[in-house]
Amino acid sequence: MADAAEMIDRAMGALIGGALGDALGMPTQLLSPARIAGLYGHVEDFVAPAADHPVSKGLPAGTITDDTEQALLLGRILVEADERFDHARWVNALLDWERDVKARGSYDLLGPSTKRAIDAINDGVPAEEAGRSGDTNGAAMRIGPVGILMPPEPLDALVAKVAETCRATHNTSIAIASAAAVAAAVSLGVSGGDWRAASGQAAAAAGLGATLGYWVTGGDIAARIVWAQELVRGKAEKEAIKLIVDLVGTGVASQESVPAAFAVLEVAQGDPWRAAVISANLGGDTDTIGAVAAGMAGACAGLSKLPQDRISMLKGIDLGEVRALAADLVAARVTRAGSGKEAAA
Ligand SMILES: [Mg+2]
Q1: How confident is the model at residue 1 (pLDDT cuts 50, 70, 90)?
Q2: What pLDDT is attached to residue 322?
Q3: N or C: which end of the chain has fewer CB within 10 A?
Q4: Is residue 339 predicted with pLDDT exceeding 70?
């Protein structure tokens, strides 16, 4: 059982754990594992990006990126309009966010699916239809707040809320399955579940999510989550990283990066900081894999299990605002569940 205070601690674990994974992977995103090794050896802490990094150049070590910013943005929209998700409002919030990011001089802008959806909306396609080809990991990377808002059971209600928030940008079977997996893992963690139980819940949610949205081709997310975790189980960290890079894949494709995040969770044995460190060394979409893996781990461990000294080094995040958001999301969840207590699955 988790009471409201413990749920808030775990909700904070999800949001701040995600931020740690995001910031640790910021300088290594888009790089090959060989380039990461050449620049840093093995990344074990926050490092600054190389001067020629395509999107992270100039950012100080420990800076969060779009993964955390968009998750917090989605969280605020969920709190403001809990019952019926406002697609137009969400899309406008993403557009405003990108404008703000550009004004700050950042190069880390909207991802391919979100960009495509917003272009479609600008061309007159209704928000509800714009996400029909969105199949990359952008929905999964920012879905954490839905897992905080929604109790793990009934699972179909959680998955339906995930699908609703995906509609404008990622309305495809593979993106909804991926986001549902991550949200379900976070949700079970907030309820008091451990990372293994969360992984099981994630695979079940992915199975449900795959039946929603426009079907697109790609490996089955539920099957690939189970497979990726089995692949690395009991392996030493270096060997596991090679297996994830070579076989699971670390690209923005949902069927690569999302199962990769679950494999990282397995290698880290649910330790949020370890999950962030492992992710940062993968190459490819390191910051998103780190944000997803450490966010899920953080939900299952709680804020008190995260390294407080590293949290104090994070840049670009207002911890007071995150705490207020976590409390608001948990309050909405408790209202939804109809009582102050909630059974852990
Ligand atoms: Mg990012």
Answers
A1: low
A2: 98
A3: N
A4: no
Over residues 208-265, the pLDDT tens digits come to 999 999 999 999 999 999 999 999 999 999 999 999 999 999 999 999 999 999 999 9
Give tens-digit pLDDT for 69-118. 999 999 999 999 767 888 888 989 998 998 998 898 888 788 889 888 98
Residues 323, 101: Cα–Cα separation, whole Å: 23
- Centre of ligand 1 to C-alpha 83, Å, is 29
Q: What is the distance in A from the centroid of ligand 1 to the CA of 345?
A: 31
Instruction: Retrieve residue 216's tokens.
Output: 């697109």
User: Residue 343: its pLDDT value, please?
Assistant: 45
Contact 115, 44 (CB under 8 A): no
On whether the pTM is more than 0.85, the answer is: yes
Instruction: Please tell me the distance between residue 56's alpha carbon and the centre of ligand 1 in angstroms.
Output: 9
Sign of the Cα pseudo-torsion (54, 13, 245, 175, in order): negative
How many angstroms does the Cα of residue 146 sit away from the middle of ligand 1? 19
- Contact assessment for residue 291 and residue 18, using Cβ atoms and an 8 Å cutoff: yes
Residue 308 CA to ligand 1 center (angstroms) comes to: 22
Query: Which residue ranges form the domains of the chain, and what is each CATH number?
Result: 4-339 (1.10.4080.10)
Planar angle of CA 10, 328, 74, nearest 5 degrees:
85
